[in-house]
Amino acid sequence: MIPTSSLAGFAFIAMSALATPAHPGANLDCDAYAAAAVAQQERNIALGCGYRGGGWSTDFAGHRTWCLQDNVRMADLTEEDGDRTGALDICLAKARACDAYADLALQQSRLNDEAGCGQTGGRWSPDVAGHRAWCMTAPPEASSAEMDLRRSILQSCAAISGDDAQLATVDMQSALQKQQQTLQMLTNIAKAMNDSKMSVIRKIGD
């Protein structure tokens, strides 16, 4: 499935492709460009991506005015639109990883309670939304470290005995599997964020 952010970009490019300016700023479909830019900012807000700056705004008039400047060419519009689309695709991948991270945090929180480990604080909270929000603002490496720390503490907790021990072992193995999958997602995001083209995306937020 193509992300909504990509569809907005494709729509803009398709609507603007027929325009071939005779000079900078001529015949550009600035209404289409501005509408796409606003849709991308709304997606930015909905996903909690946190991108900021002049390129990230719901100000239709502001985007349109920039587009109408004499020195703006079709290539400039395509670059700006493409940068936002790329940034949103990265953010969408991170949002999915953070959903998995939050689910795992909840599972580890329950294991903490069931095993009688006695761990407290935000790290062991059952608040899925809180874990997800933190993950979205944290570097992928920090989220990975949090998962590892909780796993390590749980593995060293020996409060469960008898029949419950076998059940706890199964639950721990399930949590470890989920952690490995989430870690791979976060690793892919970290790699994408370090890609050379992301320097262009960060430029929008300056």
UniProtKB/TrEMBL annotation:
Protein name listed in UniProt: Secreted protein
Keyword entries, A-Z: Signal
Native species: Maritimibacter fusiformis
Signal sequence residues: 1-19
